[in-house]
From TrEMBL:
<dbReference type="InterPro" id="IPR013096">
    <property type="entry name" value="Cupin_2"/>
</dbReference>
<dbReference type="Pfam" id="PF07883">
    <property type="entry name" value="Cupin_2"/>
</dbReference>
<dbReference type="InterPro" id="IPR011051">
    <property type="entry name" value="RmlC_Cupin_sf"/>
</dbReference>
<feature type="domain" description="Cupin type-2">
    <location>
        <begin position="37"/>
        <end position="106"/>
    </location>
</feature>
<dbReference type="InterPro" id="IPR014710">
    <property type="entry name" value="RmlC-like_jellyroll"/>
</dbReference>
<protein>
    <recommendedName>
        <fullName>Cupin type-2 domain-containing protein</fullName>
    </recommendedName>
</protein>
Length: 110
């Protein structure tokens, strides 16, 4: 199956998961996963959230994504992937003056 994000309507989200700033997302969703091609704008950040019954992987396509994972802060750069296992908390932000583009996958477990 090919997922063509250019053919999926873009959502413009202000304050993703209780955060602040702009996140633009094209999402493919079915009963097994949510697959998102996203652009996090400079200065934007998500709210802190826990993954229950699922996990999340975020692969950075361009820019630098600062991720706060449990009690650690990490920077994911182009070609790197952030993994938030089931049961863990994270939130992420764009601390740069450029967009961060990433692909996120959140499967449905069970």
């Amino acid at each position: 199956m090919i997922i063509d994000f250019d053919k999926i309507k873009e959502e413009h989200i202000d304050g993703f998961k209780g955060g602040e700033g702009k996140l633009d997302m094209r999402a493919y969703v079915d009963d097994k996963a949510r697959i998102m091609y996203s652009t996090l704008r400079p200065g934007a950040f998500s709210g802190k959230h826990q993954h229950v019954g699922t996990f999340e992987v975020m692969y950075v396509i361009s820019g630098e994504l600062t991720v706060h994972y449990d009690d650690k802060t990490e920077v994911a750069r182009v070609g790197q992937l952030h993994y938030c296992p089931e049961g863990h908390f994270h939130w992420f932000e764009n601390c740069t003056d450029h967009d961060v583009v990433y692909l996120a996958i959140v499967p449905t477990l069970g």
